[in-house]
């Protein structure tokens, strides 16, 4: 038999199946991807560098949804906020990938390019080089934590009765829709306030 005109596997197909497995199970294996694609496990190694290579394919697939044009906004703070909101939305669509990706170094070219652009935004705004990565890390922690929060139940606290926790019950009753969104905007505003303070501190 001749080779099929359409290859059974390629990097986009591997990424799709791997992400589907993680979305469903929170994990994947190279043999499981091969079974889903109907090929031998060894065939995948012609396209990816083992498990780490698959993880970077997943990272690339998820981060394709981030709107990098936000980083071209006229002011650094608008650029950072818009990028953070888009970043959060991309990962909120696939919350089970977050624990997987955060335990592996970022090597995906597309994501490294995004970081390069964020670093440039901050440096061009006047932030000291030593402050740049701590700021990006803090913002990323806020974004990914909130993306996980979006996957959580709308109500995370369930007191057995109101008599033992009256104030908590009162506060819970006052929560409207969009608890996770409101919490994210509070955290983002706090981060931006801190970042602006750092920038102003250079001038003082």
UniProtKB/TrEMBL annotation:
The keyword Flavoprotein does not apply. Pfam families: TetR_C_1 (PF02909). Residues 29-48 bind DNA. PROSITE patterns: HTH_TETR_2 (PS50977). It comes from the Bacteria. Keywords: DNA-binding, Transcription, Transcription regulation. Residues 8-66 form the HTH tetR-type domain. Transmembrane segments: none annotated. This is Transcriptional regulator. It comes from Streptomyces wadayamensis. The lineage of its organism: Bacteria, Bacillati, Actinomycetota, Actinomycetes, Kitasatosporales.
């Amino acid at each position: 038999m001749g080779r099929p005109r359409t290859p059974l596997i390629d990097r986009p197909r591997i990424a799709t199946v791997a992400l589907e497995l993680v979305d469903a199970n929170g994990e994947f294996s190279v043999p499981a991807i091969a079974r889903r694609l109907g090929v031998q496990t060894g065939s995948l190694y012609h396209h990816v560098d083992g498990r780490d290579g698959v993880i970077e394919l997943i990272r690339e697939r998820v981060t394709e949804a981030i709107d990098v044009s936000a980083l071209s906004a006229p002011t650094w703070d608008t650029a950072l906020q818009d990028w953070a909101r888009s970043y959060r939305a991309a990962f909120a669509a696939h919350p089970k990938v977050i624990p997987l990706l955060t335990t592996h170094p970022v090597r995906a070219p597309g994501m490294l390019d995004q970081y390069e652009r964020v670093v440039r935004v901050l440096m061009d705004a006047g932030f000291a080089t030593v402050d740049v990565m701590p700021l990006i890390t803090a913002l990323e922690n806020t974004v990914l934590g909130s993306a996980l929060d979006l996957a959580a139940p709308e109500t995370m606290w369930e007191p057995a009765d109101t008599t033992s926790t009256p104030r908590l019950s009162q506060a819970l009753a006052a929560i409207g829709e969009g608890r996770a969104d409101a919490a994210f905007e509070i955290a983002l505003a706090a981060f931006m306030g801190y970042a602006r303070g750092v920038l102003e501190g250079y001038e003082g």
